[in-house]
Structures are given as structure tokens and as C-alpha cells.
Amino acid sequence: MKILRKFAAVLASAALSVSLFSFTVPAEEEFSLVTDDAGIIEDIDEIEKAVIDAADNSGNLCDILIYTTDEYLSSPMNYADDRLDEYLDATGEKDGVMLVISTESRDWWITTTGYGITAFTDYGIEKIGELIVDDLSDGNYDEAFLDFAELCEKFIIEADESKPYDTNHKYRDSGFYREKIFFGTLIGVVITIVVIGTMVQQLKSAQIKTQANQFVKEGSLNIIKQSDIFLYDTVSKTRRSSESSSGGSSTHRSSSGRSHGGGGGKF
Amino acid sequence: MSTLLNYKCPCCNGAIEFDSSIQKMKCPFCDTEFDTETLKQYDEELANRTPDLEDEWDKEAPENWDVPEGLVGYTCQSCGGQIVAEETSIASSCPFCDNPVIVTGKVSGMLKPDWVIPFKLDKNAAVKGFKEHLKGKKLLPKAFRSNSHIEEIKGVYVPFWLFDCSAHGDITFRATKQHRWSDSTYNYCRTSYFHLTREGTLDFVKVPVDGSTQMADELMDSIEPFDYSGLVDFQTAYLSGYLANKYDVDAENSKARAAERIKTSTAEVFKSTASGYNTCIPDNMIVNISQGAVKYALLPVWILTTKYKGELYTFAMNGQTGKFVGNLPLDKGATARWALSLGLGLSALFSAILMLFS
């Protein structure tokens, strides 16, 4: 009887220890807004602060997340959707936008859900990718992620206060104005050259004549032999570029059944 | 197994071979394929080209002129220009370079002109023509308008050789036709290549070449055409009140210039008979001139020579039709101001348009 009581006490202590351990959540299972599995971020605190501030400044309508990995991604879309779903499942949030980077396959993908689908249209995702891809390619990851956070803030605010950036409401950065000024100046310069060239030509009226068309005797042309021989054909073809100008956000369902928007590319 | 046939590729001129696997002629250098019949026809065309012969011009030359009394010759010590005028018409400056001329006495070594077109427009018309010529030229220096001593404009009979001939041309062209179409994936373009031949004759009447080295060819070419219905048989009386330039380029040396213009025109006229092609470029040109005849004529030209900033500017007006030509100086300061203001204005305008409508 005494042995049985001692055995029961040991069993009870063991059971209590196990249950105590189960209440301690291991650090690696916390869902951070910035996950750097690839180890490419130099100052992770700065990036985390940036995404938190961006979400706060845009009214917390949508969580902003960054995820890096050194795994080879056969389907960047599925991988990104799953990472975002894990975050949403763990936190109970419904609205998010996540940028996923793979250093192995050199893919970038932006996945969205909830309000993220509204705020980030197909055009918007492509635009953000365009603006950060150079920094990703050059290995300036911190710079790229800071820009991503800033752009997400702007896009969410615009979607909330006005309408989402799309093909009929384009995002204008400083590069937009530089580009328009460059091409406007180019057109202006070309037209100026043509006009000034014409005015200079007005001063020149003496030219050597290389032909004598005015001295052809009328009706004297007599063609005695005329032949047109077909030699050969060549056929060339160029692929047509497909442009989608309808705008909006295309969506799909992830493995969890949740609806996602998204887009990506290589860097 | 390939059989060797002796043709040249029309595309790259390489030695072409019969390829029995495709039953066509194929060039091993550029891979272009041809039907045998096409190449045979092409080869026959090349073999039957007209030979390139020497141009045939009339050997008859104008007669020497026994210049009557009352006409005096002048020579310019600066440019060597030789002019003839009546004793009563005093020529003090050279119409070609504006330097003083000296009297050389009785005129000799001149050919009697066959024809002359008398002056139809007087000095007032010439002065008016010059003023019109300066109007509307925004880049002309203002100082030039006031300093051109227009009253010194002179009426000069300029010697011309007038060439008649028949040109026999045998010209080949490379031409293409293009056809474009699309499907949902690609845009297509088929380019078909052709070898064209045009052979025939074309007559030319009174092609002018000026017989004076003092008269710039571009100036004399630019006041063309003269209305040849105004040509009359030459008489000395027509020189009264005007100067006449003595020729120093004879007919023999002028033929080459006439032949060049005639050959170019022959090619252009023959090319105009090839229609329905996107491009048509002359490939090989043989033009033989025959039945050539040349006449010597004096044609009326009002001439003004003026100096501006050390450079000589010569203007000429057709004394029959009134066509006025002559290159004018450029005001660099005005050009820069125009370029800057236009450039800035247009750049700002188009930048704003692109920003608004993008």
C-alpha cells in the first residue's frame, strides 16, 4: 500500500511537470511581423518598427508582414499564401499583406488577404515590385523592405481615403515626374531642332541640281522592255504583348481555403 | 546528294546549288531558296543587258564671232572674270566679285551665240526682287539688310550651253512588297523580293549648263527654268544697256555635267513606271546618250554681289521669270535666342501634357 502511494505521487509529479512545460510557448513559435529565415536583414528591429509604424499610420486596416527564406520555391504563390495563413490563423487577424523573398530561387511574392486584396490591386502589386526589385537584385534588402513598408502605408491610405491605386488611378512617385519631364524635354528639343533647321534652310536658296526632269520632252518616254521577276519570300513574326487594362485584383484560394490576391517576380 | 548548277544567288551573290532534298535551288551561304525557273529567268535578264557605250554628241561647234565695233571688253584683275559691254555702258566693278575692272580693248576669241533670251524685267524689278528675298527671314542679321548697296545690281547675259539628246536606258531595280497580318499570339510580315528591269528611251530638250566659271553652278541651277519660248536669234542690239559674260567653259567640258543630270533623270522617270511596290531601289544603271546636239545661248540674269563680315554673298535673279536666289548669312545670336526660348517653352508644354494625360 505504501509503495502504491509513493508510485502514485511520482506519477502525479511527472504529470504536473509535463503540464507546466506545455504552458511555456517556445520562442520560435511566436508570429513576428518580420521573419528572417534567410538571415539577410541587417537591422531587423528597424524593419519591424517600420512595418508597425506603417500599419499604425494607415489606420491599422491591414497588417504588413515580411518573410525571408533560403528555401528554393517551386511555387512562390503557394508558399507565400501558406505563410500568411499561418500568421492569420495564429493571430486571428483577417487583413494582411505579406512580402516573401527567397534568396535561393530569387523570387519575390506579395500575397494579400481581406482588406489587403482591396488596397493592393494587381497593378499595385506590380508597381510595388517594380519599385523594390532593383534593391533586392543589388542585395540592399533592408532598403527594399523599408521602401515596401512605406509603399504599403501609402497604398492603404489611398485605398481608404480615395480609391486603390490601379490602372485608372496610377501611383506617381518621383520617378514618374522625372520620366515625364525627360520625355517632354526630348520632344521639345526635337521639335525645336526641326523648326530652327527650317528657319536656317530659309536662308539657303541656291542648290546644285542633280537631275534634268524639267527638260524631258513631253511624251517622249518609250519603254521597250519591262519585266518584274519574283525572287523569294521571307516571313518574320513578333510575339504580341498582352496588356491587361481592366484593373482590379485577381484572387485565388490557398490550401487553407482562404481567398488571396497576389503577384511576384524574379530579382 | 546535291547537283551543282552554275547560277549566282540574287540575294548574296554566292554560288548557288540545286538541293535535291527540297527540289529547289538553295544558297549555301544565306539559305534562301529559289525555283529553278525563277533563277533561269533572272540569269537570262542579266545576260541580255544593254552594253554601256560612249555618249554620242554632235561634233558641230558654234562659229567664231567677228565682234562688231562699239563693244568693249573688261577684265577683273581679282577673279579673272571677262565681260563685254557697249562703249557707252561704263562697267566699273566686276559683277562677280565686286572688285574694280579694267578695259582690255576690242573683244576677241568669242563664239557667236545661236540664241538669246532678252531681258524681260528691268532694274526696278530686280531691286524689288532682292527686297522680297530678304523678307520674313527671322535669322538674317539686321545689319545685312541695310548694308547691301542694292543699287549696284547689274544685268548680265550669262553664257549657257543647251544640250538636246536621246537617252537609252537599261535599268534594273530591287523592289519589295510587304503584307502584314496577325493572329492572337503573333504579328506577321511577309516580304516578297522582286528583280525589275526597265529598258527604253527618253528625249531631253535644251538641258542648260552655264559656260562661266565666275557664275556659281548652284546659283545658275537655282534660277532655272527659263521659258525657252522666249529664245530668239542672237543680235548684238540685245546687249545694249547690259553686260555680257564671256564664256570660259567650252561645250566639250560642259557635256559631262549635262550627261550626269540626264542619266539621273532617266533613272527617276523609269523608276516611276514601277508601281505597287513598298520599296524600289536602282540596282544597276546603263544610260547611253545619242543624237546629242549643243547650242550656245546668252540668258539674262540680274546679279548683285555684296560683302558682309569679310564674306562675299552673290545673288541672282532670272531676268525673264523673276526667280530670285542667293544664300544669306546667319545671325548666330538670334539663332541661339530662338533655340533657347523655343526649346524651353516646348519642353515645359510637352512635360505638362504628358503628366496630365498619363
Layout of secondary structure:
The complex is a heterodimer of chains A (267) and B (358).
Chain A: H1 2-23, E1 34-36, H2 44-57, E2 63-69, H3 76-91, E3 96-102, E4 107-113, H4 115-119, H5 122-137, H6 141-161, H7 174-202, E5 222-239, E6 251-253, E7 259-266
Parallel strand pairs in A: 1-2, 2-3
Antiparallel strand pairs in A: 3-4, 4-7, 6-7
Helix pairs in contact in A: 2-6, 5-6
Chain B: E1 3-8, E2 15-19, E3 24-26, E4 33-34, H1 36-47, E5 71-76, E6 82-86, E7 101-106, E8 115-116, H2 123-134, H3 142-146, E9 154-182, E10 186-210, H4 217-222, E11 232-233, E12 243-245, H5 251-271, E13 279-308, E14 311-318, E15 324-325, H6 332-356
What kind of assembly state do the chains in view correspond to? heterodimer
The stretches of 5 or more residues of chain A where confidence is low (pLDDT under 50) are 21-29
Q: Give the mean pLDDT of chain A.
A: 88
Biggest sheet character of chain A: 6 strands, mixed
Number of helices, counting only DSSP H or I runs of 4 residues or more of chain A: 7
Q: What best-fitting shape of chain B do the alpha-carbon axes yield?
A: flat
Compressed to H and E, one letter per element, the order of chain A equals HEHEHEEHHHHEEE
- What Rg of chain B do the Cα atoms give? 29 Å
How many helices of chain B in DSSP terms?
6
**Poorly predicted regions of chain B:** 1-5
Mean pLDDT level of chain B: 84
Distance between the termini of chain B: 62 Å
Secondary-structure element pattern of chain B, one letter each: EEEEHEEEEHHEEHEEHEEEH
Report strand % of chain B: 35-45%
Proportion of residues in helical segments of chain A: 40-55%
